[in-house]
């Protein structure tokens, strides 16, 4: 997980090997398919795709067959995550989402995968500034993040229950379904995410939805159905281009 000037306690949390660093496979497939379509097949030249916050490399490994011919480089701040990522993808480097904290020249990347990262950041504004720096003009940003306004969160809030994905502590879960602490600091609705990314200097191409692997099995058909209305979906998938 990359960081933006995270306080020591938060850095220790993300360096802990017990902290989850993998995301859902369905989200990875949907994101990779969208990027492959955006880059074009066959691509005239191999693209540099930077997976920022690559975690254990699972998402990049899932995307690799759909992005054949392109070079995927995983980036993470956590040394433990990078150690695990090296077992799945050939190219990984350490970097941070601070000013010039990513080890890439300005305008050198054709696309950035930014999957389930922004909700963990202290300073998401600086993160998008740094992503914009390394992208070439017209380069693609493929961002995914949990949806604060997911269909079940709306019902939970009406019942006075803390929404899924939200967290009030790094030590334990309080007042919401689930048992796993993953360090979410910020959550977005579809409208807020679109507005935020546009304000950072990107043209938002499309916002779609993806299901969440943690939804109980009996409710998964409903969760997949909610993807047809991104504002209700579990996961938000945003495709934007650098202006």
From TrEMBL:
Highest rank taxon of the organism: Bacteria
Q: Which UniProt keywords apply?
A: Methyltransferase, Transferase
The protein in question is named Class I SAM-dependent methyltransferase
- GO terms, molecular function: methyltransferase activity
Which residues lie within the region annotated Disordered? 1-29
InterPro entries associated with the record? SAM-dependent_MTases_sf
Which species does this protein come from? Streptomyces antnestii
Q: Name any one Pfam family assigned in the record.
A: Methyltransf_23
What are its GO biological-process terms? antibiotic biosynthetic process; methylation
Q: Does the keyword rRNA processing apply?
A: no
């Amino acid at each position: 997980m990359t960081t933006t000037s995270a306080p020591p306690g938060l850095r220790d949390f993300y360096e802990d090997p017990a902290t989850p660093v993998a995301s859902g496979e369905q989200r990875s497939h949907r994101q990779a398919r969208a990027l492959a379509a955006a880059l074009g097949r066959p691509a005239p030249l191999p693209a540099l795709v930077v997976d920022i916050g690559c975690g254990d490399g699972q998402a990049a490994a899932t995307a690799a067959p759909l992005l054949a011919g392109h070079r995927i480089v995983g980036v993470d701040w956590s040394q433990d995550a990078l150690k695990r990522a090296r077992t799945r993808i050939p190219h990984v480097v350490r970097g941070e989402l601070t000013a010039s904290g990513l080890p890439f020249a300005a305008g050198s990347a054709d696309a950035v995968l930014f999957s389930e990262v922004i909700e963990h950041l202290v300073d998401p504004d600086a993160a998008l500034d740094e992503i914009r720096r390394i992208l070439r003009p017209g380069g693609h940003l493929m961002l995914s993040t949990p949806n604060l306004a997911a269909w079940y969160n709306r019902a939970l809030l009406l019942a006075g229950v803390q929404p899924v994905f939200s967290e009030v502590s790094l030590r334990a879960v309080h007042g919401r379904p689930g048992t796993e602490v993953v360090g979410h600091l910020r959550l977005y609705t579809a409208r807020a995410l679109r507005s935020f990314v546009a304000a950072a200097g990107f043209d938002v191409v499309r916002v779609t939805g993806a299901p969440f692997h943690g939804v109980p099995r009996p409710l998964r058909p409903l969760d997949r159905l909610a993807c047809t209305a991104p504002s209700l979906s579990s996961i938000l998938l945003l495709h934007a281009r650098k202006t």
